Amino acid sequence: MTANAASVTWRKSSFSANSCVEVARLATGVAVRDSKNPDGPVLHYTEAEWQAFLLGARNGEFDLRH
């Protein structure tokens, strides 16, 4: 990680009850971690990857289809 996980501001959705992922902005993109395991692994995405994910989520690409 380009920044220490403790030195960035982590946020999670206001819709989250207990279990959720947290995201943090980095100079090089976005970091994602499990809020239940803040000392665990951190995933890193470039800004382009993150924007593609957000666009897909907004467009329903990840909705479960029955």
Plain-language structure description:
This protein has one domain (5-58). The mean pLDDT is 87. Strands 1-2-3-4 form a four-stranded antiparallel beta sheet. The protein has one helix and four strands. The chain is of the alpha+beta class and 66 residues long.
TL;DR?
The chain has one helix at 47-58, and strands at residues 11-12, 21-26, 29-34, 42-45. With 66 residues, it is of the alpha+beta class. The protein has one domain (5-58).
Cα-based radius of gyration, to the nearest Å: 13 Å
SS-based structural class?
Answer: alpha+beta
Number of helices: 1
Strand element count = 4
Helix percent reads 10-25%
Hey, roughly how much beta strand do the residues contain? Answer: 25-35%
Shape category: globular
Strand/helix succession: EEEEH
Q: How many structural domains are formed by the residues?
A: 1
How much is the average pLDDT? 87
Q: Low-confidence parts, pLDDT < 50 over ≥5 residues? A: none
Physical arrangement of strands within the biggest beta sheet: 1-2-3-4
Q: Let me know the largest β-sheet.
A: 4 strands, antiparallel
End-to-end Cα distance, whole Å, is 38 Å
